[in-house]
Write a structure and sequence with these properties.
alpha+beta; Ribosomal Protein S5, domain 2; Alpha-Beta Plaits; ten-stranded mixed β-sheet; 10 helices
Length: about 280
């Protein structure tokens, strides 16, 4: 009998704004940010194993097998669920590392939800999100799969219905260190908190953008270039920058004018992630 294969998307996200309200005693920062998903991302394929081994068959340059968030997510779920089953995992990597669009966090969330389904653990979304938070501050938003206003270190989520425009996402060829950005003395850390309502009326900016564009000329140049066509913004701590468009044609038109040295992709914003759409279809079968 052929092995049961499960293939699921791990979608990208954008931070449509990111305010830093202050630094906490534990060194983390109090944030307010707005997450929306894109219909573009990585893809993971899972196959169950009876021997309890977790094996990721895709090498990621510079990331040892056991340090990969996918492997760590799988092992933590396995241990906490006291599950004797294992998994073979394959990753089709489309999202850049260090891009600020959630590649590693999204892969971890897809692993948690995928193996919960494959191993028939029947864990709740709340329980999976709590486990996800131990892997990274952005993992819970991918576990929950709904566009959201996030507070705290990014774990307090208020789901929102946003418009779903098309985005052009440009990928400067540089790895941005999130730790360096958050430890930069010039980072603004005292932005006053705002209410969701004023945010939906068009408020909001990214407090990390001035620091990132100063430290990384590749990001600065991408913002200057994209700003010629549309209001360009940084997502998260970068390196990716984006602009929004009312339709795909307009976004494609600008994408064609970017130089080959600045790769990009066009995707639509989504309030419910592709992962959750796929899992809903599977649940109905």
């Amino acid at each position: 009998m052929a092995k049961q294969l499960l293939t699921l998307p791990a979608p990208a996200k954008l931070n449509l704004m990111l305010h830093i309200l202050g630094r906490r005693a534990d060194g983390y920062h109090e944030l307010q940010t707005l997450f929306q998903f894109l219909d573009h991302g990585d893809e993971l394929t899972f196959a169950p194993r009876a021997d309890g081994q977790i094996h990721l068959h895709t090498d990621i340059p510079g990331v040892p097998h056991d340090s990969n968030l996918i492997v760590r997510a799988a092992r933590q779920l396995q241990q906490q669920a006291n599950c004797s089953r294992g998994a073979d995992i394959w990753l089709n990597k489309r999202l850049p590392m260090g891009g600020g669009i959630g590649g590693g966090s999204s892969d971890a969330a897809t692993t948690l939800l995928g193996l919960n389904h494959l191993w028939q653990l029947d864990w709740s979304e709340d329980r999976l999100a709590e486990l996800g938070l131990s892997l990274g501050a952005d993992v819970p938003v991918f576990v929950r799969g709904r566009a959201a206003f996030a507070e705290g270190i990014g774990e307090k989520l208020t789901p929102l219905e946003l418009s779903e425009p098309w985005f052009l996402v440009a990928i400067p060829q540089v790895l941005v260190s999130t730790a360096e950005v958050f430890s930069d003395p010039e980072l603004t850390r005292d932005t006053p908190p705002i209410k969701v309502r004023s945010l939906l009326e068009g408020g909001g900016h990214n407090d990390c953008q001035p620091v990132v564009q100063k430290r990384y000329p590749e990001v600065r140049n991408a913002l200057i270039l994209l700003n010629k066509f549309v209001q360009a913004r940084l997502t998260g701590t970068g390196a990716c920058v984006f602009g929004s468009f009312p339709n795909r044609d307009d976004a494609d038109k600008v994408a064609r004018q970017l130089p080959a040295t600045l790769p990009s992709f066009v995707a639509q914003g989504r309030n419910i992630s592709m992962l959750h759409r796929k899992l809903e279809i599977l649940a109905k079968k």
